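Review form for a predicted model. The reviewer records the input and the model, then writes brief findings.
Reviewer: anonymous (R2)
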Amino acid sequence: MKLINYIAGIALAATLTTSCTNLDETLYDQVGTQNYYNTQMDVVRATFRPFEHAFWSIGSRHVLNELTADQLITPTRDGWWDDGGKWRRLHYHTWNVEDGGDAQTEWNGCFQGIMQCNYVIEDLNTLSSEKFGFSEAEFNNLKAQCRALRAWFYIRLLDGFRNVPLAVSFNDVSQNSVGQVEPRVIYDFIESELKECINLLAQKPALGGNQGLQGQWTKAAAASLLVRLYLNAKVYIGEEHYTECASYAEKIINGEYGPYAVADRWDAPFDWDNEYCDEVIFGFPASQGYSFWHYQGDTYWWTTPARARYYLNDAKCKAGDHNTKYAASPSYDLNGELYSYELGMPIQNFRKYPGDVRMKLYRNLGDNKREGMFFFGYLDYIDENGEAKRVRAPEQPYDLYIRDAVGKFQGMDPDQWPDDKTSALPNGDHNSGWHFAKYPFYSDDDSHQMESDYTEIRLAEVIYSLAECKLRAGQTEEAGRLLNQVRRRNYDATADLARTLYAPDGAVQLNEKEMLAEWGREFFAESRRRIDLIRFGKFTNSTWWDKTPDADNHTEIFPITRDILNANLNLVQNPGYNK
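Model under review:
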């Protein structure tokens, strides 16, 4: 057990360290398998090298799963964010094989990660555990780390493209499929791998967060991937596997794979010390100056106003200025009237139950604490000369007044509305759409700025998955109780819980429509909205802001882009797209 803890520590270091400071190293003319593995640390470093790539790769998944759905948008802003219409094509579901972009990045990024995992797995299969001081169980755990990560990549490919090749070897390509295989083959491979890995991976021993296990696949983390797989089985292979989904979810919740617990604050799983949060089941370790792709890339760094650094006091942060890529889809038209869409309107969806602490204006409170999740209205701050200022638009002479609407407001007063009533993605400005901060943007004065690990799986997801299975099985009250275990923390002392909680704890009646809405609230901007809409049959045939139903359902999966097709002539285009 001591050695497993040692592996945990150096594995964490391996995922974070980007350079070597030891200059007394042995130099080789060539570095290959035969002369790379010399110490126990070499084995661990090799095992966790694909994890850094995996962390980097989250950006394309985020774009594809959020900007194609109903909650997040990228409107134009005073000439910004058109980029040849690429964001419009995502929003309107009019992408095609020539687009490349994030669909191509997702395909390539996942397969690069898979082949990195294959390389390590095959290397480890040639090594002796005894030579490097590992027990057989510890060595099998290392192999299972890469097998579970490979399954994680394959779930993403199954989700995004459905029809993909199966590659299980780096060195012997004859073991890999020539072209695509049926989705069922990928599904069965993922299922088999994860079931085996559960028996080989370490188990979180006690409450107190993952700590040194952060960034490693554990029994509970692998089981959580099975929950994801089974929850969406009807989408992936046309078969319902809600019973299996519920079974694994219950095992996780009941502590069969280690102790986990729902945090008492909504933001604890995303905070700077989330390696100690028992809600986090799997997270990628992050720290400023090392790997912090959710901040350094556009996943969350570009969810604020462009000049938010003045308001946040993080102007000296090495990641640079913020940007305005993501905002919440609007709830109001340009007459100030509430829309009546069933989907989208995420801010109004939060407003449905008063007292939601997430609805507060985002503020840094000092001492590595924050409150609220959204940026809206005027953003006031005191500048370095002690003068009261407001965040302004970039390149334009107006103070921001951020609205739950999309239009050209420029410097209008809060009670004014533009004459141009066209509320559409190509017709916004820097006031358009509430911004948000899922992860904290602490100031330069805080000691833990940009230190939050990226939470890939949390216990709330497992609970919500079980609740959905219960609801689909007609066990509505059991589903409501499960959801309330998480929802209670989101409402302050002013909230009327009797009118906020689901029955039987409160008066709110749970149904499929409300279940989908609650997925949207709890997992807002967590890279999953698209698959939730598809699972509920709402992705292609529904209407939300500036989006009409698709002609058919072929856009439930993405095309294989022209460059990828040209690189492998054995690939066949996905149905509904130009071949």
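Findings: The CA atoms of residues 272 and 448 lie 6 Å apart.
Further findings: The mean pLDDT is 93.
Recommendation: see findings above.
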